[in-house]
Write a structure and sequence with these properties.
The complex is a heterodimer of chains A (about 290) and B (about 300). Chain A is about 75% helix and about 0% strand. Chain A is built from eleven helices and no strands. The chains are: A mainly alpha (about 290), B mainly alpha (about 300).
Chain lengths: ~290, ~300
């Protein structure tokens, strides 16, 4: 199975990563903990309105850290409960794209020849599709629900993963342990999923950190248009959308969720870039 | 070259057809018809409306009807704006969106290539790190966060620029939307140019040019830039798709009556023919532009033409 080699490159990866990776990893961990803890521990919840406490300024009035919104809901809780939704959607959607992309790429790469050519040509064709428009259409046409968001975002993001996995598979299938498996008569699909795929997981893990911010972008874009998560439940994109409507009266309603969203995306991108550079020595030079 | 061009053109057709089929099926699989209202129509009227819009025909028949209209440039009637056809509505909104998009892409190219070359020439210095850092921020922060922030700072707080389309005068009201739309693209172009330029500057042909005594500026201008811009040229296709998508947000925020706003309105009104029409139109545009970029790329780099 050759997992020892994977493990050692992984350890090496984590030793050689730069400060950017460590800092962004730390920030993401902190945000994740806050997203889990704040809605649980806060005396407020994300949906209760209090019309006498509308538009409280952050930190100044009534011991509200982030203030309140136009319906008197506590922004601190809403922000982190929105973060929770955003992260959940992004992680599940990335998992969907990971499963599709890895299976597709590994099969194409291992099969090679005509099958590979046809499968990758399809990927090329799909790249040309304006997916965002199709997703919006999908969300308009059907009653919006969580499951659909996952599927829609996952269906967009698997293309890159398929390409990367195929490239890796092409080089992996020339290795001795694959030859050995073939020699003792392991069927092709079993070779792909039991011998090739486990050895890809290091690279895949790195690329998932780059898929997650893309998924976050799509989800928050949909929520911003009012097509994503539905009220009173919210996500960071939905909060930004609410913030835009109250921009002149209460700028913090836009600034706080917008900044948090930016920080999360920035951290994921730095993390993914840093890990990829650490894994690929050729890139480190540039 | 001709063979390559022909093959590429032919392969664009199935892609386009795929989009049309997908979009058409999605719209028709949607639960609830476009004329479902609180008020219940007498069955006779409902039948008449369905017949007028050919909704009583079978799905393949409707699709063939749609396709044959499409070939003639007819995208059908709008469900919501009763007196207008979808083609008319798109035609009216298009020029504004086109101007917005083209200006953004032009800005992205000029600013991005400039910043990328600068960062590559000052590789591993503070300037380089500043440019790369800002580019990373540009890539990460979504348009729908940047655009309201620009409005908040430059329109609401400072009062320098108009906050929305209806309140501004002709020239200035385009500035903020163009900048908001261009920012992420500037960031991508910067990164691509920087990476391409660093590689070009380290390559043999640049070393030869240098050994022959050429100055840095003419090396960049005549030798390195051409090689460095290949990845940028291939990014043009995705950039156009991103600008089209971004325009949906920017036009909504700034209240610009362009294609993006039309799309969102159509979506919220459940105006299926309009939404379908815009999707098909944008898909055709993207596929066509991708094709042009592909051909341009094959022209610039002879290696691509080989099968």
């Amino acid at each position: 199975m050759n997992t020892a080699a994977t493990a050692s490159t992984f350890a090496g990866t984590f030793r050689s990563v730069g400060t950017a990776v460590k800092v962004s990893g730390g920030i993401l961990l902190f945000v994740a903990v806050m997203a889990l803890a704040v809605p649980l521990l806060s005396p407020h919840d994300y949906f209760s309105m209090d019309l006498e406490k509308r538009f409280l300024s952050p930190m100044l009035e009534g011991a509200r850290l982030f203030g309140t919104d136009d319906l008197g809901r506590d922004l601190f809780v809403r922000t982190f409960s929105g973060t929770r939704v955003t992260l959940l959607v992004a992680i599940v959607a990335s998992f969907v794209s990971l499963v599709i992309g890895v299976a597709y790429g590994a099969i194409a790469g291992y099969a090679g020849g005509k099958i590979d050519a046809v499968m990758m040509r399809l990927v090329d064709a799909l790249y040309a599709l304006p997916f965002m428009f199709l997703v919006i259409l999908l969300m308009v046409a059907f009653e919006r629900n969580f499951l659909l968001i996952f599927v829609a975002i996952g269906a967009i993001n698997w293309l890159d993963m398929a390409r990367i996995v195929r490239g890796q598979t092409l080089s992996l299938k020339e290795r001795e342990f694959v030859d050995a498996a073939r020699l003792i008569g392991v069927p092709p699909l079993a070779i792909v999923f039991r011998h090739v795929v486990p050895n890809l997981l290091g690279v895949v893990a790195v690329y998932v950190t780059l898929t997650i911010p893309q998924a976050i972008l799509v989800e928050s874009f949909l929520s911003f248009l009012g097509l994503g998560v539905q009220e009173p439940q919210t996500s960071l994109g939905g909060l930004v959308n609410d913030g835009v409507t109250q921009m002149e009266r209460a700028p913090w309603l836009l600034l706080i969720p917008g900044t948090l969203l930016a920080i999360i995306l920035l951290s994921f991108n730095f993390l993914g870039d840093g890990l990829r550079d650490a894994l690929d020595p050729r890139r480190r030079r540039a | 070259m001709l063979r390559f061009a022909l093959l590429r053109t032919l392969s664009a057709i199935p892609t386009l057809l795929l989009v049309i089929v997908l979009a058409f099926l999605m719209v028709h699989a949607a639960p609830g018809g476009p004329f479902d209202d609180e008020r219940v129509l007498p069955p006779e009227n409902a039948r008449n409306i369905a017949a007028a819009y050919h909704l009583d025909e079978s799905l393949p028949r409707q699709f063939v009807r749609y396709l044959s209209g499409l070939v003639r440039g007819d995208l059908g009637p709008s469900y919501h704006y009763r007196d207008h056809s979808v083609s008319e509505l798109i035609g009216a909104a298009l020029p504004l969106s086109l101007r917005l998009g083209l200006l953004s892409i032009a800005l992205a190219m000029v600013a991005g290539i400039g910043a990328g070359v600068l960062a590559a020439l000052k590789n591993n210095t503070a300037t380089d790190r500043l440019v790369t850092g800002v580019a990373m921020i540009g890539i990460s922060v979504p348009v729908f966060v940047v655009a309201p922030l620009l409005v908040l700072v430059f329109a609401v707080q400072l009062g320098w620029l108009p906050a929305s389309w209806s309140s501004g005068d002709a020239g200035w009201r385009l500035l903020l939307p163009v900048v908001a739309l261009a920012l992420p693209q500037i960031a991508y172009v910067t990164r691509l140019t920087r990476a391409g330029m660093i590689e070009a500057l380290n390559s043999d042909f640049v070393r030869t040019a240098r050994a022959q005594g050429l100055g840095l500026l003419s090396i960049v201008r005549f030798h390195a830039l051409k090689a460095a811009l290949l990845p940028v040229a291939s990014y043009l296709g995705p950039a156009i798709a991103a600008v089209l998508t971004g325009a949906v947000v920017v036009e909504t925020i700034f209240g610009i009556p362009g294609l993006g706003q039309l799309f969102v309105r159509g979506a919220l009104n459940r105006d299926y023919t309009l939404v379908l029409g815009i999707v098909v139109f944008c898909a055709a545009l993207i596929v066509l532009l991708n094709l042009l970029v592909d051909l341009l790329y094959g022209f610039l780099d002879p290696r691509i033409r080989e099968p």
